[in-house]
Design brief:
Layout (H helix, E strand, L loop, with lengths): L1 H19 L12 E6 L10 E5 L2 E6 L4 E6 L2 E8 L3 E8 L4 E9 L6 E7 L4 H13 L7 H10 L1 H18 L3 E3 L12
Helix pairs in contact: 3-4
């Protein structure tokens, strides 16, 4: 009896862990939206880009990889940081799945980051992103690291958001994720 109970608990735990970091598109939880930040190019692979959702650090990765991020729907601000800071606004619908291509741009000391939202109409980029997402697990930054980085970068984040609000959003033409850019479920297969 104890062995059967142990096996049942073990199987439940293992299936739970595999769904946390499973490869392929995963729909968002009820009432949420999901954004995939996908780096389809190996160019500048050794450069890490750090990702933020409004005033929170959400993760880091380098090379040809992706980050899956689930959040509330509605108006959002995402940004990435390296030698430059790149912002993207969003209007996400509940249950929507969105893809942002992480562009690697030649910089002065290291690669710059660009963020380009795509839809299924961007056929070549969509297929490249879909192939990557379906072939490997997302990069997952541990909760402990996210918490530590949010604490460590608090003044940096405040400073960059102040610059965004007071200067950059009016001077630069940042890209936008429109609600209708959600990827249809049948296109994710």
């Amino acid at each position: 009896m104890k062995t059967k109970l142990f096996c049942t608990i073990l199987m439940a735990l293992l299936s739970g862990f595999s769904s946390i970091s499973a490869q392929g598109f995963e729909p968002p939880a009820e009432g949420k939206s999901v954004v995939y930040f996908v780096r389809v190019s190996g160019y500048g692979g050794s450069t890490s880009f750090e990702y933020f959702h409004q005033d929170k650090y959400i993760g880091v990765f380098k090379k040809k990889n992706y980050l899956r991020y689930e959040c509330d729907p509605g108006e959002q601000l995402f940004w990435a940081s390296t030698e430059n800071k790149e912002f993207i606004t969003a209007d996400l619908e509940p249950g929507g799945t969105y893809i942002v291509i992480v562009d690697v741009i030649m910089g002065f000391w290291k690669a710059h980051v660009g963020l380009t939202p795509i839809s299924v109409n961007d056929e070549e980029l969509f297929e490249r992103a879909k192939e990557l997402i379906n072939s490997k697990k997302p990069v997952v930054t541990s909760e402990a690291k996210i918490e530590a980085m949010n604490e460590k970068l608090e003044s940096f984040i405040d400073e960059k958001l102040k610059m965004y609000d007071e200067e950059w959003k009016d001077e630069r033409n940042f890209k936008h994720i429109a609600a209708d850019m959600a990827i249809p479920p049948d296109a994710m297969k």
